[in-house]
Amino acid sequence: MIWLHTYLGLITGWLLFAIFVTGTLSYFTPEITYWMMPERQVIVIDEQQQNQTYAQGQRYQVEKSIDYLETHATNATSWRVYLPTQRDHHWYVQWSEGKTRHLVSFNKDAIPIETNTDTKGGLFFRNFHYTLQLRGYGGRYIAGVAAMAMLLALFTGIYTHRRFFKDFFTLRKGKVTKWTTDFHALIGIVTLPFCLMICISAIMIYAIMYMPFSANMHFENGERGVNKAIIPSLPALGESTQAIDKRGMKKDILYSTILADLKIKWQEPNAIKRITIESPFRENSRFIIERTKSLTVSNRAERLVYSSYTGTPLEGYADESAPATFRRIMYGLHQANFATIGLRWLLFVLGALGSALIATGLIIWVNQRRTAYLNANSHQLGLPLSLRIMEKGNIATIMGLAIATSVFLLVNRLLPADMANRADMEVNAFFVVWLCSIGHAIIRPSKNAWYEQTCIAALCYLALAVVSFSIPFERTLDALATLDITYLSFTVVFALCGVGFITLARWLKVRLVQTSDRYDLNAKSVDVPNIKARKR
């Protein structure tokens, strides 16, 4: 069990660390996107203010959205209206005409935003988390294998640290190796339920893809055939030759009937997340309203269907089967869209501790093997190749990812707004910097590489805090005026990260000096007898 725990962690450790870090950042995907697109501003306010300000309510937003679509999307077969939430504040409409897809965003005054920052936003971290930027090249399979390995490592880790009650209250502050081992065991115990939930839910999301044999045997199109069979859908709209006047949406009926009914069924504020209008300007047009996911653990929220012109309820979606519901609950647990701000920060901390669990495991293995090898081979210089590869890989994975993340965010603010392929340039900067970190770790001595890359990370995050506050400065002033805590908190977090890396760099500097002094003392203790012998 100990052997399996050790080498599962070694083989998949670097991959799991990258997956855990990006997954932890994904808990704040809308917030990261919000910060990376400074043209967005606060749209959603609390319910009491909405009662006083009609222009901030969802009814006003729906009306303005439909007004715009009636004017600019007359040839579309369907419309979609995405209403803002208190997390992303993104209000936009979407429609397609043939193969051309249109998307228009609005500010809080219902004025279309002419320019949107070309960026992947927080979706980059979320997509990298489960595709490793290899969508179409087996990225999800690799991530799935890593999740299965992590699950095995957790169970074998329970046996490895089976005296967990004793380990939980043990934290030796002496040698770094012992302290790291105790810390590894401690956070393993604290994060065990979280890590089990994350790994099991991750596997359940793509269970059909990982084990397609039964689906291929019983369904013509395999996985797609299963999804079509178990995912409920609305009955197809029949052909309607009766057209309605382009200004015939009858908003008085629509809002007095539909929204009054919604107020009874969905009593939370800002309950609507998305509205889909099928076959606008036709007599049989449907109005599909999707609820926000804030009150459900499932990744699919409740949906209601109405007639677009009479407001009468129509036949809705059928209930999903128990296995499909279970899968969606596991999916929802993994994404945590239901989490309040306090719970989301708790999950973020647990994710960060899970990342530290993996990192300390990798570092412990290298330190223990290095100590054992040097004690057994004190007359030899250098370390075996396998140990050097693991040591260099740990530096590039742990510190390289920290630096690359800061550069990804830094480049978002420094690149010109009108640059072509701007979003791709951000992603390219992330991977180029990470590659440079690997090269630096290879050519530098390990202890120097740890210290130098920690210093670089500290500089990057401090620079990011300055840039976040000053570029664009008008956005910061607006955030201060409106007490936009979400936007302002990024500057604070970046500064804290910079201070944390400075503290770590100072500690590494002390160890680097101590190691150099110890090396000099050892060299003198060896050289002095040789000199005396030569004199004799």
For the structure shown, list the relevant keywords.
19 helices, globular, alpha+beta, 6 strands, disordered C terminus, 536 residues
Describe the structure.
With 536 residues, the chain is an alpha+beta fold. Helices cover 63% and strands 7% of the residues. The protein contains 19 helices and 6 strands. The chain is globular, with a radius of gyration of 28 Å. It starts with a helix and ends with a helix. The C terminus is likely disordered.
| Shape verdict | globular
Q: Report the β-strand fraction as a percent range.
A: 5-15%
Number of helices: 19
State the end-to-end distance.
57 Å
Care to count the β-strands?
Answer: 6
Short description:
This protein is an alpha+beta fold and 536 residues long. The chain has 19 helices and 6 strands.
Topology summary:
Elements: H1 2-25, H2 29-36, H3 47-52, H4 58-72, E1 78-82, E2 91-97, E3 100-106, H5 123-131, H6 139-160, H7 164-168, H8 176-205, H9 207-210, H10 213-218, H11 223-230, H12 251-265, E4 272-278, E5 286-291, E6 303-307, H13 322-335, H14 341-376, H15 385-414, H16 422-443, H17 446-470, H18 473-482, H19 485-535
Helix pairs in contact: 1-5, 1-6, 1-14, 1-15, 6-8, 8-13, 8-14, 14-15, 15-16, 15-17, 16-17, 17-19
